[in-house]
Amino acid sequence: MTVEYSVRIGIDADFVMTINGESVGGANVSDVYNPATRSVIAQVPVATRDDLDRAVEAARTAFLSWSATPLAERQAIVSAIGDRLEEHAEDFMALLTAEQGKPRAMAEWEVLGSVAWFREIAKQSLPEEVLEDSAERRVISRHTPLGVVGAIVPWNFPILLAVWKIAPALVAGDTIIVKPSPFTPLCDLKLVELVQDLLPPGVLSAVSGDDELGKWMTAHEGIAKIAFTGSTDTGKHVMRSAASTLKRITLELGGNDPAIVLGDVDPKKVAPQLFWAAFQNNAQFCNAAKRVYVHDSVYDAVRDELVEYARTIVVGNGADPETQLGPIQNEPQYRKVVEYFDDCTANGYTFAVGGSIDQAAEGWFVPVTVVDNPPENSRLVAEEPFGPILPLLRWTDEADVIARANDTLWGLGATVWGADLQAVERIGKQLEAGTVWLNEVHQYSPHQVFGGHKQSGIGAENSLHGLAEYTNHQTVTLNKVTGAVS
After folding, report:
1. Which is catalytic among the residues 99, 110, 193, 252?
2. Closest by Cα among 306, 198, 261 to 415
3. CA–CA separation, 95 vs 190, rounded Å?
4. Would you give the DSSP letter of residue 468?
5. Which residues neighbour 138 within 8 Å (Cβ) at sequence distance 6 or greater?
């Protein structure tokens, strides 16, 4: 499909909602901030309940024809959306850095990763399963689309985690309404606006707003499914609200991922890997390693190498090419992270590196910080800071460290690091987490299922398992016997 289509992308652009294929403003607007400068860079509309109702009605109408569109056509369109994003990749990288704060390398990883996700999910399908095909009967199991999906997207990976919802929904034959985070709405609004000429009106819409909009979506009778990424506490509210209409839900929630480091590692080699396991995206990452258990025999050496490596990292404005880690994305999260620093200071915990926040800094910046062996019951160990402050903990007994790693209400991810591969696998298989990485971390794929155990979520994203979450299961039986009904 060759189309001439132009949308201004950047902080000087106008930002609008998209409803039924049309650009929609709003009587009320909210400010969007650059977290590196705390300055307002744009304003976006605040959706009304009527805006949402119109988006849902348009999506319900579009569903009738979109769900009947041949799978190959839907797949081609989803792949074309990836192509369109790639054509404007540089603009989206700059806009992502401006609104989210991440440096160029992380922005490139997210934007180009989103392109790859569109293209790979577009290749997926859920074929019919023939359960019986005899002279008398034929029985098949098939997948049918749900209807209208409401996608509620977080602020830490605003493009990629929107794509994780948009791509499978469209391939499955659903229509979808995207609600970006009010802290990072710009890229998502522009992406949806940018691809409208590729889709029938109403198939893909975007509405922007605050928490009230999320509540309206989760309770709306016209929405068949909510796909939500965010905190566990908010996920519980989503689940309660969705229960009123028995909506299907996929919840990708918080984590307190443990990393277990065996005594046979090379401290100098493992330290950089542990650093990025914990601090990638400035630790604003549900899958960040948030508790690192290091065997006592190498604890001091690993700690010292980790500290040495941390001191080489440049924290600053993501627009600066030298920056490796950016700021905390928004003020509420910044205040929460400050609380963990204050708690560590008040309790006299030892900072191996960092520990002092300059709250007068231009942006919401927090230094990379490692806390040296705090108590297991400390807030820092038991909770999810979602910021660059990491507890390093000692262990000696394998059964004990596995029990400590599993002693959490979360179960999203975990890592194990060591030279003895049998020991690494033995420990890894005992960890209660949806993804367990062994001697690597943060490896994702559109064809690799992703989901949490315990209170880290319900359902799955990615792979055919994730695609199936956007469908109903249907069994169809046929009695072939002549004369059965006549």
Report:
1. 252
2. 261
3. 10
4. H
5. 130, 132, 477, 478, 480
CB neighbour list of residue 210: distance below 8 Å, 6 or more residues apart: 30, 46, 182
**Helices 160-172/104-121 angle, 10° precision:** 10
| Whole-prediction pTM | 0.97
Work out the pLDDT band at 45, boundaries 50, 70, 90. very high
Does residue 286 carry a catalytic annotation? yes
Nearest to 181 by CA among 242, 224, 231: 231
Query: Which pLDDT score is estimated for 7?
Result: 85
Residue 1: pLDDT over 50: no
Burial class (CB in 10 A: 0-12, 13-18, 19+), 64: exposed
User: Residue-wise over 203-230: b if at least 16 C-beta within 10 A, else e?
Assistant: bbbbbbbeeebbebbbbbebbbbbbbbb
Average pLDDT score over residue span 418-429? 98
pLDDT digits (tens, 9 = 90+) for 132-165: 999 999 999 999 999 999 999 999 999 999 999 9
Active-site position among 286, 344, 384, 461: 286
Whose tokens are 């794929």? That residue is 445
Position 142, amino acid: R
Task: Check residue 485 and give its pLDDT.
Answer: 76
Residue with tokens 């049309």: 22
C-alpha 471: how far from its chain's center?
21
Coil, strand or helix: which one is 23? strand
Question: Are 113 and 89 within 8 A, CB to CB?
Answer: no
Residue 344 bears catalytic tag: no
Predicted confidence at residue 2, as pLDDT, reads: 39
Cβ burial of 464 (10 Å; 0-12, 13-18, 19+) is middle
As beta bridge partners, residue 392 has: 292, 372
φ/ψ (deg, to 5) at 20: 55, 40
Tell me how far apart the alpha carbons of residues 71 and 65 are, in angstroms, rounded to a whole number: 12
Whether the Cβ atoms of residue 382 and residue 280 lie closer than 8 Å to each other: no
In this prediction, residues 57-69 reach a mean pLDDT of: 98
What average pLDDT does this structure show over 414-430? Answer: 98
Check residue 458 and give left, alpha or beta (phi > 0: left; psi -120 to 50: alpha).
beta
The number of angstroms, rounded, from the C-alpha of 389 to the middle of its chain's C-alpha atoms is 21
- For the cut 80, the answer to whether the pLDDT of residue 5 exceeds it is no
CB 85 within 8 A of CB 114: yes
